[in-house]
């Protein structure tokens, strides 16, 4: 265990918390990113005890629940150890975990939007976009959607499964015949590929049967609605699809 004093740790936290305080309102994702970056920069070291939730909430100018959420992300990913009556400590292996790229690249690269940020943005406009696809899609578009649905159904690896999902969405975007919308989604795919779809070390692993079944059903229903030229239903199903993902997502940045 590191022999850094609590006072030293609190002082270090003041330094790195300034990165996201002030004009930029802290969210759980931003607190999480700041802590990870502090570890990489050496401001926080393996074995260090983190300041308590109250102090962190003051330093980040945010709520204790926001801080608690950020710490929960780290706990889920094995980066910290919580000791009842003592506090939260960085694991002695925290640097090895980070160096092994066991966390999404988006977690510590401000230039890459997080999965949550992308989902929030897509939910704002994609339901309306699919209604446009319903009115403009041709037989070739529907064939491409079905082709990518087959990839979702049969993909042996998680990374191929994700490529299939994004292939379905891209085919829907292309069906709008709107180059701006297509470029927007191609940028989304580029960002997601840059972080291996946040797959961490599991990108080469198998797909959960339950996840595959649910994803295939939801995307299939959207494509069915598009092929039926029912833009209203397609938009409603798309909104439900993203709302469900957002509701079940454990935010990790």
Automatic annotation (TrEMBL):
Q: InterPro entries, from UniProt?
A: GntR_C (IPR011711), TF_FadR/GntR_C (IPR008920), Tscrpt_reg_HTH_GntR (IPR000524), WH-like_DNA-bd_sf (IPR036388), WH_DNA-bd_sf (IPR036390)
Keyword DNA-binding among record annotations: yes
Task: Write down the SMART domains for this protein, in alphabetical order.
Answer: FCD, HTH_GNTR
HTH gntR-type domain residues are: 25-93
Q: Does the keyword Transcription regulation apply?
A: yes
Q: Which residues form the signal peptide?
A: none
Gene Ontology molecular functions: DNA binding; DNA-binding transcription factor activity
User: Keywords for this entry?
Assistant: DNA-binding, Transcription, Transcription regulation
Report the PROSITE patterns cross-referenced here.
HTH_GNTR
Q: What Pfam families is this protein classified in? A: FCD, GntR
Q: Which domain of life is it from?
A: Bacteria
The molecule here is called HTH-type transcriptional regulator LutR
**Annotated gene:** lutR_5
């Amino acid at each position: 265990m590191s022999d850094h004093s609590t006072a030293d740790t609190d002082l270090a936290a003041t330094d790195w918390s300034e990165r996201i305080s002030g004009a930029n309102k802290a969210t759980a994702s931003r607190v999480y990113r700041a802590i990870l970056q502090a570890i990489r920069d050496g401001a926080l070291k393996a074995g260090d005890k983190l300041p308590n939730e109250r102090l962190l909430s003051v330093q980040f100018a945010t709520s204790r629940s926001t801080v608690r959420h950020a710490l929960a992300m780290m706990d889920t990913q094995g980066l910290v150890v919580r000791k009842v009556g003592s506090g939260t400590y960085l694991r002695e292996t925290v640097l090895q975990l980070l160096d092994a790229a066991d966390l999404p690249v988006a977690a510590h690269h401000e230039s890459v939007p997080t999965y949550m940020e992308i989902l929030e943005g897509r939910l704002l406009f994609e339901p309306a976009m699919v209604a446009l696809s319903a009115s403009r899609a041709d037989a070739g578009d529907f064939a491409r959607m079905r082709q990518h649905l087959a990839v979702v159904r049969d993909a042996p690896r998680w990374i191929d499964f994700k490529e299939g999902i994004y292939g379905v969405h891209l085919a829907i975007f292309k069906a709008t015949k709107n180059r701006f919308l297509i470029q927007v989604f191609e940028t989304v795919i580029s960002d997601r590929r840059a972080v291996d779809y946040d797959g961490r070390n599991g990108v080469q692993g198998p797909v959960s049967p339950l996840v595959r079944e649910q994803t295939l059903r939801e995307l299939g229903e959207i494509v069915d609605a598009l092929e039926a030229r029912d833009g209203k239903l397609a938009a409603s199903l798309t909104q439900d699809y993203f709302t469900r993902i957002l509701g079940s997502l454990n935010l990790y940045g």
